[in-house]
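Appendix B. Raw example, untouched.
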Amino acid sequence: MRKIDLIVIHCSATREDRCFTEHDLEVCHRRRGFNGTGYHLYIRKDGRIITTRPLERVGAHAKGYNAHSIGICYEGGLDNRGRPKDTRTEWQKHSLRVLVKTLLIDYPGCRVCGHRDLSPDRNGNGEIEPEEWVKACPCFNVCREY
């Protein structure tokens, strides 16, 4: 088993008024040249948690961090016009909380962060600020919630 010390939360960057299934996610990632879905777990709008890549397998979700992390993605992240927004349903919020708590039992001491929190600290002040984000993903403050 590989050493895990990081849990990274992502959004699928899809509109809240559209469905984006785990199959759609797989097709999207394969088109980008990945060998299957890059995230380990996917949370649908109804709260279902779907395993999309075995935890033992290195992910393809956060460049430079994949070897020692688990990637979780939730369906959504954009408003109806395609702008970043926390679109998580109550079911997704619940499932994400339970999933992270469970993973922290299995992998104690893991840092939990959003994909955007792995952006480079361009001004060198020790904090990743909104103007430094490479992308808004996952469209909510993971560090504040976890």
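End of appendix B.
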